Amino acid sequence: MNTRHNPANDGSVILNSGMKVLRAESKALALQAEQLNGTFIQAVCTILACKGRVIISGMGKSGHVARKIAATMASTGTPAYFVHPGEASHGDLGMILTDDVVIAISNSGETTELSDLIAYTKRFSIPLIGITSREESALATAADTLLLLPNEPEVGALGLAPTTSTTMTLALGDALAVAALEYKGFSAEDFGNFHPGGKLGKALLRLANLMHSGDEIPLAKLSDNMAHVLVVMTEKRFGCAGIVNNEGTLQGIITDGDLRRHMGNGLIEKTAETVMTRNPMVMSPHLLAAEAMKILNETNRTQVFVVEPPGRPVGILHIHDLLRAGLA
C-alpha cells in the first residue's frame, strides 16, 4: 500500500501513470483496427438482417460495457437491449426471441454465467456473436460469428483490472453500431427522433418545430400602404413584416430599420414596395435549429422568414425562439 499522504507532491508520477494508460490503450486500439477482418463484416450483416432485437450480455465489467453498447445501438436505429446473464438463467431467457441476435461478451470466453444463454441460442438457432480475446474458449467455439480481441495485456502495475480489454470491447461495439447506422443511411433527423430531450435533442430540432406559422406571420402585399404595414408590424410584434406579391411569394421585408430610414419623407403614404428591402434572407423549414442559430449570430439578425418553394412564407422565426428552446 502506498503511504504517500500528499499526491500533489508527486504530480509527475501521477501524470506519467495516466499517460501510460492512454498510450497503452491507444496502441491496443490501433492494433485492433488493423486486425479487423471479414468476421466484422459478417457480424454487421447479421445485425442488419436481424428482424427482432440485438440482445447484448456480459458479466461484471463486460456487463457494464454491454449496457453501453446496447444503449448506443438503440439510439442509432438498431433495436437493442441488455440482458443480465445471471437473470437470464432465472427466467429472463424468455425475453429472447428466435428473431433476435445475441452478442455475448467475455474477455476470457469462459464466463460461467453465460453458459445457459449460449446453450439457449444453440437450442433455438438464434445467431450468436461472441466477443472474446481467447480463440479456443467456450464462447469462441460456440459463436456463429467470432469477434476476436487482440490479446493485449491489461494496463497497470498489476495487470489484473479490466482496462485495455474493456476499452477495446467498447470501441468494437461503437464500430458495430456506426457501421450499421451508416449502411442503413441513418440520418440526423432519425437521430433526433431518438434524442428529444436535452441539448442534443434541441440542437436537432428543425425550424418547422419552432417557427410561428399561420395567422402569426406578419405579411403585407406590395401595394399595401405603409399605414397598413405599420398595423401588421404592431399586431404581430416581430419588428418586421414580410411583403408578398399576388402569388403569395416573398418579395421583400420591412424592418424597424427600414422605418427609421424612411421616417419624415411621407412614410405613411408610401407603398410597401417602395420601402421594403428586397431579396431578404430566408430559411427552409427543414433547416436544423442549430444551423439557424449560427447563421443569425453571424449575420447579426434577430428574425428570419421561413419559406417553401417557390418562396411562399410558411413561418417566421425570432432568435428568442431559439434561445427559449435552449440553443445558445
Question: How would you characterize this protein structure?
Answer:
This protein has 328 residues and is an alpha/beta fold. The chain folds into two domains: 14-186, 3-Layer(aba) Sandwich (Rossmann fold), CATH 3.40.50.10490; 207-324, CBS-domain, CATH 3.10.580.10. Helices cover 45% and strands 16% of the residues. It is built from 15 helices and twelve strands. The strands form three sheets. Strands 2-1-3-4-5 form a five-stranded parallel β-sheet, with helices on both faces. It has a four-stranded mixed β-sheet with strand order 6-7-8-9. A three-stranded mixed β-sheet has the order 10-11-12. Strand 3, helix 5 (115-123) and strand 4 form a beta-alpha-beta unit. Helix 2 (38-49) crosses helix 7 and helix 3 (61-75) packs parallel to helix 7 (164-184). The longest helix has 25 residues, at 11-35. The mean pLDDT is 90.
Keywords:
45% helix; 5-stranded parallel β-sheet; CBS-domain; 328 residues; single chain; 4-stranded mixed β-sheet; elongated; alpha/beta; Rossmann fold
